[in-house]
């Protein structure tokens, strides 16, 4: 039973029995993500002190060179997961290829692979706008006892065991699902503990916010252009409000709480849009569905798309169920 003010640590232990494959391994994995989140949060919070502490590329007082935050976040997550030997492989938006975690002593006995976008929206760091980390967890499909292969990472999103994000915002939150609803935890920075602040998060069935980079309007497919016009028309409960942070985690988080739709469509310049299927869209789609929302590529549920490569991009429509269905209707009618 979840209750407000429960710590994330307590929540993980109490809910372990509800996990599909309950061996404690997934709990340990989420605990490691919780730890890496706190470390990255600390670094992100220091970003504004760049004039004092030194910019990326500078050498600090200990003679260490300062790293860009997205590179640093990547390292922190990979090291935290790899050092604990609780996963058999990691793929990251920041790495060209997946990483095999070789543990000499346990002979590839771990069963989970993790995919991460360590610092999404990192171009927002310089202007003090919220950024996030996105993670996605699968059970490997190749036999335990052998090294992981690409096949373990190229699974449809429907196979995810857990997924979530950390939002480094006005407060830092960790929001995740293991397929039993979505729960949000807020970090108390004074004591470094995440508390359950948003139990059983739900997308409102519909909403009044649409989030899309309208600067690219001219390049959008006709269905998206028509849907945007629909959002702006003075009819029924419209016009809707336009809100676009340009940081997927933040736009998603706001829309889940207030009701809304996020769209990153294909464009004439970019046939598959911009967002990555494995690191961004699948975990967000899993969370959306678990919270009663919807996520699609305009025609098909994101979670049913069969990935073909690690860094594959995909058009993304995600948010309140009725809004996504309406956008899909425009896509169908104008394709
Ligand atoms: P990134 O992985 O390089 O940070 O890019 C992903 C980000 C998303 O967070 C955001 O929604 C989108 O890119 C914004 O893109 P654009 O500036 O093209 O609207
Ligand atoms: Mg990203």
UniProtKB/TrEMBL annotation:
It catalyses: beta-D-fructose 1,6-bisphosphate + H2O = beta-D-fructose 6-phosphate + phosphate. Homotetramer. This is Fructose-1,6-bisphosphatase class 1. Belongs to the FBPase class 1 family. Residues 204-331 form the Fructose-1-6-bisphosphatase class 1 C-terminal domain. HAMAP family: FBPase_class1. One of its GO terms (molecular function) is fructose 1,6-bisphosphate 1-phosphatase activity. Its main location: cytoplasm. The gene is fbp. It comes from Robertkochia marina. GO terms for biological process: fructose 1,6-bisphosphate metabolic process; fructose 6-phosphate metabolic process; fructose metabolic process; gluconeogenesis; sucrose biosynthetic process. It comes from the Bacteria. InterPro entries: FBPase_C_dom (IPR044015), FBPase_class-1 (IPR000146), FBPase_N (IPR033391), FBPtase (IPR028343), Fructose_bisphosphatase_AS (IPR020548). Keywords: Carbohydrate metabolism, Cytoplasm, Hydrolase, Magnesium, Metal-binding.
């Amino acid at each position: 039973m979840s209750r407000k003010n429960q710590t994330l640590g307590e929540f993980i232990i109490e809910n372990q029995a509800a996990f599909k494959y309950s061996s404690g391994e997934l709990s340990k994995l989420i605990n490691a993500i919780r730890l890496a989140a706190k470390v990255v949060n600390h670094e992100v919070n220091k970003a504004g002190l760049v004039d004092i502490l030194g910019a990326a590329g500078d050498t600090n007082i200990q003679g260490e060179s300062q790293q860009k935050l997205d590179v640093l976040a990547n390292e922190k997550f990979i090291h935290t997961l790899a050092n604990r030997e609780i996963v058999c492989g990691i793929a990251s938006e920041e790495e060209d290829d997946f990483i095999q975690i070789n543990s000499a002593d346990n002979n590839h006995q771990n069963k989970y692979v993790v995919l991460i976008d360590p610092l999404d929206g990192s171009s927002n760091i310089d202007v003090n706008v919220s950024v996030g980390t996105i993670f996605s967890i699968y059970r490997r499909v190749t036999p335990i006892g052998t090294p992981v292969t690409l096949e373990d990472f190229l699974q449809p999103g429907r196979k995810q065991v857990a997924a979530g994000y950390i939002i480094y915002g006005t407060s830092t939150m960790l929001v995740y699902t293991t397929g039993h609803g979505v729960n949000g935890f807020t970090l108390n920075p004074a004591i470094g503990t995440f508390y359950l602040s948003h139990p059983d998060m739900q997308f409102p069935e519909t909403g009044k916010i649409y989030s899309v980079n309208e600067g690219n309007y001219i390049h959008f497919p006709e269905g998206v252009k028509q849907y945007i016009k629909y959002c702006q028309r003075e009819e029924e409960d419209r016009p809707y409000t336009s809100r676009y942070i340009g940081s997927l985690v933040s736009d998603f988080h706001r829309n889940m709480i207030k009701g809304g739709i996020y769209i990153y469509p294909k464009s004439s310049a970019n046939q598959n849009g911009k967002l990555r299927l494995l690191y961004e869209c699948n975990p967000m789609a899993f969370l959306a569905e678990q919270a009663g929302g919807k996520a699609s590529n305009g025609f098909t549920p994101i979670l049913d798309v069969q990935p073909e490569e690690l860094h594959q991009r995909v058009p993304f429509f995600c948010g309140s169920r009725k809004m996504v269905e309406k956008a899909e209707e425009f896509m169908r009618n104008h394709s």
